[in-house]
Amino acid sequence: MSLRSQLPPKDRAARSRLVQLLAAGKPLAQASLVVMARVCGKKGCRCAQGQKHLSLYLSTRLGRARKMLYVPPELQQEARAMVANMRQTQALLEEMSQASLERLADKKARRSADRSRS
Predict the structure, then answer these.
(1) Domain spans, the chain
(2) CA dist., res. 93 & res. 2, Å (int)
C-alpha cells in the first residue's frame, strides 16, 4: 500500500491538484505584479500635464536585490497567469504543510497520552 493512499481525502485532493498543476508544465513566476505610473519625457505628451502612462512590471528578488521587469501589453495576460499559477502552487503547498503538521501534532498527542497511561 502506498503512502499516498493512507492520506486523508482532503490531503490527497490537494496533492493531486498540485501534481496536476506542475505536470501541466504551466509557467510559474515567484513575483508580484506592480502597476507603475511614469512620465515618458516627450514634450506635449499628456504625461507632462500629469496624466502619467501606466505600465505593468514583474517585481522579484534575485538574491538580495529587487528586480523589476517591464511587461509589454501583449505579454500582460501571460505574466498574470504565471503569477497566478505560482500563487495557486504556494497555496496548495501551504495546505499540504498544515495538514502534515496537524497529523504530526496528533501523533505526538497520542504518544504522550499512551505514555501517561503506562
Answers:
(1) 4-111
(2) 20
Residue the block writes with cell 485532493: 13
Instruction: Find where cell 490531503 sits.
Output: 11
Give 83 or 10, the one with higher predicted confidence.
83
Taking the complete model, does pTM exceed 0.85, yes or no? no
- Confidence at residue 17, expressed as pLDDT on a 0 to 100 scale: 87
Q: Of 48, 50, 57, 53, whose CA–CA distance to 37 is shortest?
A: 53
Exposure letters 40-79 (e unless 16+ CB within 10 A, then b): eeeeeeeeeeeeeeebbbbeeeeeeeeeeeebeeeeeeeb
Residue 6 corresponds to which cell in the numbers above?
493512507
